[in-house]
Design a protein that fits this description.
Blueprint lengths: L4 H16 L3 E4 L10 E10 L3 E8 H11 L9 H20 L6 E3 L3 E5 L11 E7 L2 E9 L2 H6 L2 H4 L29
Antiparallel strand pairs: 1-6, 2-3, 2-4, 2-5, 3-7, 6-7
Amino acid sequence: MAVDNPTMCQIISNVFDDMLAMPTQVVDRPVSEFNTDRIVAAIRISGSVEEVVVVEAPTASASLIGETMFAADPGTLASEEICDAVGEVVNMIGGNVKGLYDGDSKLSLPCVSQESGVVDSGFGNGDTVCVNVSGHPVLVRWHDVTPAAVWRNSDSFRNSPDRQHSWCQHSANNNPGAVTESPTTNS
């Protein structure tokens, strides 16, 4: 079961509206609006599923999240505290996503960085939701990172001259989800 947009929107609302008392509204914004200084936090779910969840918050949005989470006055948090707050948000969202899946899985520690410049708009086979959190934009993206899914959605595959030919062989029982051979690359 993949996480669909309505489910992710509910998870985002649970984290921001219910846990942080920060009202959210899904908005239609181009990813290019996030081509600015921002805090990027990612977390991986591994085990019965392989999924990555990423939260990208422009600096002003990230600061507001931190100030709300730590009940701090505006402008008083160090950049490390702001990063910690965005990391905790991706941790809460990732934990909720992990809870949707059956089977054993683990949640990694959040990986948080300060970024600037162009947002990667080619997010593989992933989904993206942009929300206003207390009036400030936040981008949430998630995607399957199993090797087959990543390869099928990579530039290497899309630009391959023989991409019309399937690189995977399906199992004898014709189960289209059972990959028995992985792609090889010539390096």
